[in-house]
Specification:
Layout lengths: L2 H23 L3 H18 L5 H13 L2 H19 L3 H6 L1 H26 L9 H11 L4 H8 L6 H31 L6 H33 L4 H22 L3 H12 L13 H33 L9 H24 L9 H7 L5 H15 L6 H37 L1
Helix pairs in contact: 1-2, 1-13, 2-13, 3-13, 4-11, 4-12, 4-13, 4-16, 6-7, 6-9, 6-14, 7-9, 7-17, 8-9, 9-10, 9-12, 10-11, 10-12, 11-12, 11-13, 13-17, 14-15, 14-17, 15-17, 16-17
């Protein structure tokens, strides 16, 4: 199947699934789309006896489709820029320290709690994988997915400050989480015996600081161009913002800096909400265009997450399925790690900053995982094709746990978090 054919199929599925969800399921669109895509995938996988040809076509299509590359190089760039574009810069500034600490210290705490706990718990169900590979799982599952979080938070009514904390943390911890994953990946690839802390610090510093600086530079230039155009040619303004996103993603990949962080900073530069000046640098049409891109990409992304079960089932075919017992354990461990990753920093910050009641519980349950975790897990299969010696069994365990946690997160947490927000509002007015 050609790329254009695949994109056409995804758009048609998005339109049909949105209509089915709107008329019958009546769920939040992202959750409804993913459930329908999982249902279709399950039908194809388990209906192999009756539809063997369809199963083969679907498996080949999803195997050839490089989900991680398309997500990180295209979709994530668009979605993060669009998400940051709508952020309230003033509220983000008021909550800058909680966001910064949670996006860094919180991710690191969660990574090591998940990795260590999984390493010691998995043998209880007869599974043994290396500690560094457990840390890889911890790194890819610890950052909350900004796409899932932003889609969820748009449907709730919370204070602007809490919204800024949750959304801001998810936007920044995504970039930090990917950098932590790459750092642990390089350590695992080169061997622990060759590891030097300075190497990890250099990689982390270059990726994070480089991404922030690149985003600031492109954002500054883009904002200047938008001010020069001054809303007289909306089509040129749209092209400028598109050029920022696509060009920024390519430059970030070439320079080996964090593309996600660059996209977030660029979106904040151009965004208008909460600004005291340059509020109308971009015309209304630009924001409508990026809102459309956000909704369309969101729909396609969650369909893709659901369809990935076809590829994962193919990768796990013929394997000992005992590692499926690891999924409920992983769900519990990830939730506990999230609670600690949020609770420890917030408890420390309460010395100088006031937090409303239920903040830790809200931040824990609203920390949804999504496409980024799935993409990082699937990238391990692609890495082995490039020479990275990671045992297939370990990758299968990591992938199964990742997909299980993501499904529970988006469906289980996504459908129940609104009740928690309601209780939060009642307690804090």
């Amino acid at each position: 199947m050609q790329v254009l054919d695949f994109i056409t199929l995804l758009i048609i599925m998005a339109a049909i699934f949105l209509l089915v969800n709107l008329k019958y399921l009546k769920l939040p669109s992202t959750i409804g789309l993913m459930i329908l895509a999982i249902g279709l995938s399950g039908f194809i996988v388990f209906g192999e006896v009756l539809f063997s040809t369809l199963k083969d076509i679907s498996t080949n299509m999803m195997t050839q489709f490089q989900f991680s590359e398309v997500l990180f190089q295209v979709m994530l760039s668009f979605l993060l820029f669009a998400g940051a574009l709508d952020m309230n810069l003033q509220k983000l500034g008021e909550e800058k320290w909680p966001i910064l600490i949670l996006a860094t210290l919180g991710v690191l705490i969660s990574t090591f709690v998940v990795g260590t706990a999984v390493f010691y718990i998995l043998p209880l169900v007869g599974i043994n994988i290396a500690y560094m590979h457990c840390l890889l799982f911890g790194a890819l599952i610890s950052p909350t997915d900004p796409i899932a979080v932003l889609a969820m938070i748009k449907k709730t009514t919370v204070s602007k400050n809490l919204e800024a904390e949750i959304a801001g943390e998810s936007l920044f911890n995504d970039g930090v989480g990917v950098v932590v994953f790459l750092t642990i990946f390089e350590i695992a690839e080169g061997g622990v015996e060759h590891f030097e802390p300075i190497m990890a610090l250099e990689l982390f510093g270059v990726e994070v600081l480089g991404g922030l600086l690149l985003g600031a530079a492109i954002g500054y230039i883009g904002l200047y161009l938008l001010k020069v155009i001054d809303n007289t040619h909306t089509e040129i303004e749209v092209l400028v913002t598109l050029s920022m996103v696509l060009g920024g993603a390519s430059i970030a990949k070439y320079l080996h800096v964090s593309g996600p962080l660059a996209m977030v900073v660029m979106g904040l530069w151009v965004g208008r909400e909460g600004r005291t000046k340059d509020a109308d640098a971009a015309g209304e049409y630009v924001y409508k265009f990026w809102h459309l891109m956000d909704e369309a990409m969101n729909a396609i992304l969650f369909i893709l997450i659901g369809l990935q079960i076809i590829r994962i089932a193919d990768e796990l075919a013929g394997q000992n399925m005992v590692f499926l017992f690891a999924i409920p354990l992983a769900i519990v461990v990830v939730l506990i790690a999230r609670f600690l990753g949020v609770g420890i920093p917030i408890t420390i910050m309460r010395i100088w900053q006031k937090f409303p009641r239920m903040t830790i519980r809200i931040m824990t349950w609203a920390g949804l995982r999504g496409g980024i975790s799935v993409a990082l897990a699937l990238s391990l299969y692609e890495a082995t094709e490039s020479g990275f010696k990671l045992p297939q069994y370990d990758i299968n365990v990591i992938t199964a746990m990742t997909y299980g946690v993501v499904l529970f997160s988006i469906v289980g947490q996504g459908l129940t978090v609104k009740r928690m927000f309601t209780k939060y509002q009642q307690l804090n007015g």
